[in-house]
Amino acid sequence: MNPKSQIRTVLSGLIPFVFLVIMILYLFGPGSNLIKFGTALPEITIEKIEFVDSEIQATVRNTGSIPVTIAMADVNDRIQPAAIEPDKSLERFETALVRIPFTWNRAEPYTIGITLDDGVRFDKFVEAASPAIKYDYNLAGFFAIIGTYVGIIPVMIGLLWLPFIKRIGKNKYNFFLALTIGLLVFLGIDAIQEAFEVSQKNLSPNFNGGLLIVTITILSLLGLYYVAEKLTSRTKLSPDSKPLVIGLMIAIGIGLHNLGEGLAIGAAVGLGQVALTTFLIVGFALHNTTEGLAIASPLAKTKSPAFKIIILGLIAGSPAILGTWIGGFFYSPFTAIIFLSIGAGAIFQVALVILKWIYQSDQKLVQASVMSGIGVGMLIMYLTSILV
Amino acid sequence: MVLILFVLVGISVTIAFSTLSEAQKEQKTIITHSGKAIQTYGDVLDPLSNASTVEFDPQKYLRDFNYGHISKSPTGQTIRDFTIIAEDNKTQEISPGVFYNVWTFNGTVPGPTIRATEGDLVRIHFINNGSKSHTMHFHGIHKAEMDGVFEIVGPGGGQFTYEFEAGPVGVHPYHCHVMPLEEHISHGLYGVFIVDPKEGRPPADEMVMVLNGFDTDFDAENNFYAANTIPFFYQHHPIQIKTDELIRIYVVNMVEFDPINNFHLHGNLYHYYPTGTDTVPSTYTDMITLSQTERGIMEFQYTYPGKYLFHAHKVEFSEKGWTGLFLVQKPGDATGSEYES
Questions:
Q1: What is the pLDDT of residues B263-281, one digit of tens each?
Q2: What is the rounded CA–CA span in Å between residue A262 and residue A151?
Q3: Interface mutation vs chain B, best among A39, A60, A75, A79, most B CBs within 10 Å
């Protein structure tokens, strides 16, 4: 291609954009009168409320389409003097910290209200006031222990099924592989559901939470699938190492999933929800033994050294610790949703890879062992999820 | 060369400005009612102490009585002419930092306090410069066609002259009576009408307090309450009075949405004349309860100097602004300054 025709190609690609820009300027640009209906309403979201020594602190974010000015703070609908840092004018998506000197009572419910300069009030309800957790090494250590109990130990326990799976015949083996798919599909849907819950409860509608979840999940699925395919096709894999690679992918996918679980636990501790925290720890721990099974299944027909299997277990389990740290120390609904969606995408990708693997070895998916495996896998997950 | 100079000037200006803006970020302290203090480099959100910045001056309104343009009729009757202009496009800072579309008589909420003596001929030249229909409806005794209910005054300069004999003696509200009534009243179209007895009342330090509120987020619940519009104003600009001087307060409850309001005085009791129509007080108390447009006259004097609270004992209202202070001083000790916080 000569330079001239290259320029032409670029130009012909750009021309529609130019017209698009002109049209948008005409419709919405300065001096445009065509579209002039509706009123832009100011909106803020109170993202976090913390109870510190004789002070209540609220983190507010401008989640509307126009800049806002904060005028007043109240506690239980009673006006209180307060400070706002860095300042009271918030551009779009900017946050500020409102500090209200207030002698609050432990375990009592509080509603914190913020009034804007146009007199509109936004509020957030806290079920029970509890002192904000102190961010120090002790807490980090505490989170690490919880993460270990929730992530690493259950996965390791699950890996102990490996010798059992090694001893069974092809049909039963396929059943267990399919069981893994069932477990994973359930976990993926669970993560997405969780993400939607967080989005509805804590994320401003401005972020389009639902579409964000769908987009991130699909991006994660496509990205990981593509990378995994490239990896497995580039390195000439011996039939022996392929299961290990699949095991690794499962471990990574589950690791991302456990990161999400860690986030949930860390955030629950951070929000002072003791009952929820305990429930989550017990629930996730039981749940996660099945993840060990998921990693073990593809490895069953190969001779994989024990240390490699342990490493896979660590890859799958330890992100739970990281998750509790992120969730506890830097929780935001936005990051929680992102992590949960990435996790969901990773899990679906792994399920897809195993499915493909079964198909490649048998040239047939519709068989009793596979169908019943997926079904039983999902049932097991459902039952463990309601039992705890 | 020029370019280098330009860059140098640019850099120094940037540095100078950045240090300036840092200097502006001074540390401020917030002290609450209970003495708690926090330090901040941010902004202060405090309707309790910033109240001097608002447009409407409750200190001025408190003792501001309008007697009208006075003339005599051939029969010797005193005629008082008032001009009242209604508007509904003003945005007023009704609490520090909170801006609300007020509907006003003569530009303020409440409207001017109209005062006449029993038997005077009152003539209100009403002009509606608003964008909606408005009227003036006086509580009192007058002809049906002067009632300001069916004689709708149109927007954009509509006019009407209300003419009636002042009576009965007492304190009465006036307000717009166009539907939807709650909307017109809660936006601020009200004021006080005082009818003095012919023989007059004993000399006193007289003041008007309209108990009102604002529903700034339109959820049929008030976000702010006050005596004379601005929340917490008199708490930080105490009303200065003297010991042993008779104080007379014309109090009118114009709060919408809430069925009752009340008035509690600290360190003292007052004689209360409901509607101000009788010369004998009905009660001697420190607490009266007022329904919508219920009003009366309170009379009291302080023996001991000091700061005394007055507020709604419906504490929700007082914590949303309906609270104030009397600063009682011995006659010789008065500082002379009108404001003190």
A1: 999 999 999 999 999 989 9
A2: 8
A3: A79
Q: Could you tell me if B142 and B164 are in contact, meaning their C-beta atoms sit under 8 angstroms apart?
A: yes
pLDDT of B102: 93
Distance CA A95, CA A147 (A): 30
Query: Residue B11 and residue B17: Cα distance in Å, rounded?
Result: 10
ipTM of the complex: 0.78
* Shortest alpha-carbon distance between residue A47 and chain B (Å): 19
Whether the bond into B96 is cis, omega within 30 of 0: no
Question: Can you give the residue range of the structural domain that contains B279?
Answer: 51-333
Q: Based on the structure, what is the number of domains in chain A? A: 2
Q: Show the domain range for A87.
A: 44-126
DSSP B238: P
Stretch A216-239: mean pLDDT, rounded? Answer: 75
Contact predicate B117/B123, CB 8 Å:
no
Count of all residues that appear for chain B in the document: 341
Contacts with A73 from chain B: Cβ below 8 Å: 45
Taking the CA of residue A50 and the nearest CA in chain B, the distance in Å comes to: 16
- What pLDDT shows up at residue A184? 78
Inside any domain, residue A28: no
- Inspect the interface and report whether the beta carbons of A72 and B47 lie closer than 8 Å: yes
Write phi, then psi, for B202 (nearest 5 degrees). Answer: -55, 145
Last-in-domain residue among A79, A100, A126: A126
- A52 with A194, same domain: the answer is no
Domain tally, chain B: 1
pLDDT, one tens digit per residue, over A283-303 is 677 667 777 877 877 777 677
Beta-carbon count within 10 A of B323 CB = 23
What is the spatial distance between Cα B247 and Cα B288, in angstroms, rounded to a whole number? Answer: 17
Q: How many beta carbons lie within 10 A of that of residue A137, not counting itself?
A: 7
| Polymer length of chain A | 388
| Rounded-to-integer distance, Cα A371 and Cα A175, Å | 8
The reported pTM is 0.72
Confirm or reject contact between B223 and chain A (CB < 8 A): yes
Q: Which of B320, B123, B322, B141 is nearest to B216 (CA)?
A: B320
Asked if A178 and A285 count as a contact pair (C-beta separation under 8 A), the reply is no
Enclosing H/E stretch for B212: strand B205-214
Nearest neighbour of B320 by CB, restricted to A73, A78, A101: A78
Within-domain flag for A300: yes
Chosen domain end from A92, A126, A160:
A126
Q: How confident is the model at residue A381 (pLDDT cuts 50, 70, 90)?
A: confident
- Asked if B265 contacts B258 with a C-beta cutoff of 8 angstroms, the reply is no
| Domain contains A120 | yes
Residues A84 and A174 in one domain: no
CATH number where B179 lies: 2.60.40.420
